[in-house]
Amino acid sequence: MPSLLYFFAFCNLVIGSSAFVLGGILEPVSVGLGASLAATGQAMTAYALGAALLAPMLILATGHWSRRRTILLALGLFSAGSLISALAASLTWLMIGRVVMGAGVMFTAAASATAVSLVPVAQRGRALSIANLGQSVCYAVGVPVGTWIGLQWGWRWPLWLAAAASLCVWLLATRLVPAATTGSVVTGSLRTAAGQWPVWRVWLRTLLMFTAIFGVFTYIGPVLQELDGLDATGLSVVLAIFGCAGVVGTLMGGWAADRFGVLRTTAIQLTVVALMMAVLPLTAGHTVLTTLALVVWGLNSFGSMAPQQSRLISLAPSQAPMLISLNSSMLYVGAALGAAAGGSLISTVGMARLSWVGVPCVLLALLSLLPDFKGEPSKGSSG
After folding, report:
1. Which of 72, 144, 150, 266 could form a disulfide with 236 if both were Cys (CB 3.0 to 4.6 A apart)?
2. pLDDT of 73 higher than 90
3. Domain-by-domain residue ranges, the chain?
4. Does domain 3-373 have CATH number 1.20.1250.20?
5. Would you say residue 383 has pLDDT above 60?
């Protein structure tokens, strides 16, 4: 596989770690900024809305730019947002910083468009899984390490480290992304691409899946502390194990999509995620069982992105960058909805049972696969 894919994975590691470390340090952040836990959780909503609304708009506005230039803009915006967040003296400024960080998620579309252009069609699933690998590695490394640092030394430390890492990634990109990477990110007609019901069903599945996931993951630190009374070290270890499962799941998802077909792979993943979200509250008081449920959940939820992206590419290859960008928008709209729904229901269902809120969303995503199975091939990236 081309070495540039591994640099994209590193970029996604920094982006994911910087964005999602907040879930593990939510309580000290809320105390430090003098805001409620539920209100502070909406910082994830702000990030998600920036990614869902601003990132696609920027992708379309810079559609005639080279991929290299688009990538540098995306990483520059993310760095600026990380710095604003680290300097935030109030929840309002933290929200502003998170919105700017979200705009930088336009990197996903630019990197994915470049990744699929570097490999043969039969290797698209694996190329995408490598390029996106950092999004799962961040849960094994960045999020647990940042959580431990934030709980031990203060919540601003992880944010400052995120700002420094983001700037380093931007500087590396100026050297490592070849000037020859000149193909534009946006090609083809959005109206043509979006005029297919199968495309809309992929977007719907992504929306539902991540609404369910972020309904609990936005508050994962308090949830795990409520379930098992974990201290800072224990919480970091469990998050690291969950992240390791996500790394394996990301690679397995790309491989399974190429080997067994996108639809079959996605159906299995959604079924298992629904089961694990239902089981998680029942593991209260048993850290090993909680961790096991999270491992199985991580394997399947992280593994879902490469099959989803492969499906979009097979439906409209020439419009793939736009479709992937809008699929990322659905991911972040789902994250915003999940964070808002989870925050509003904490007082009703309690932290320990928060994952139950997302189960109906995953089941609806599973049902959305039924029309696609009719008359579709069962193997390959077209399946």
Report:
1. 144
2. yes
3. 3-373
4. yes
5. no
